[in-house]
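From the pipeline queue, job 12 of 40. The input is one protein chain; the requested action is below.

Action: predict structure.
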Amino acid sequence: MHTLVIIIHLLACFLMIGAILLQSGKGAEIGAAFGGSSQTVFGSRGPANFLSKFTVIVAAVFMLTSLTLAIMAKERNFASTVIDMKKKDSSAPAPATSSEKPATETHPAGDAPSSAH
């Protein structure tokens, strides 16, 4: 699931970059009004409407995938830095070897511990 969301996120990134770069600026119509050549592929107003709607849709998908990835990352509980990982490794207790014997308490004969429950 995580990989699928990343793939959709990257696809949305590239589509949004392409859609933004294909759009013309606000002042592009003024140049065409004074005799400049009109470079229209979709008609006079076609690309502006299509590309603006496409950009909004792709931006919404981008935001949803970003939010989803943030929630998924929070649930995974990864260590944020190498220092945090080092602290986790050093704080783990060392396993006892089989040659070590547990310490037993010795009590004098008169002071035996009671086993009352």
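Job complete. The helical segments are 2-22, 28-33, 46-76, 82-91.
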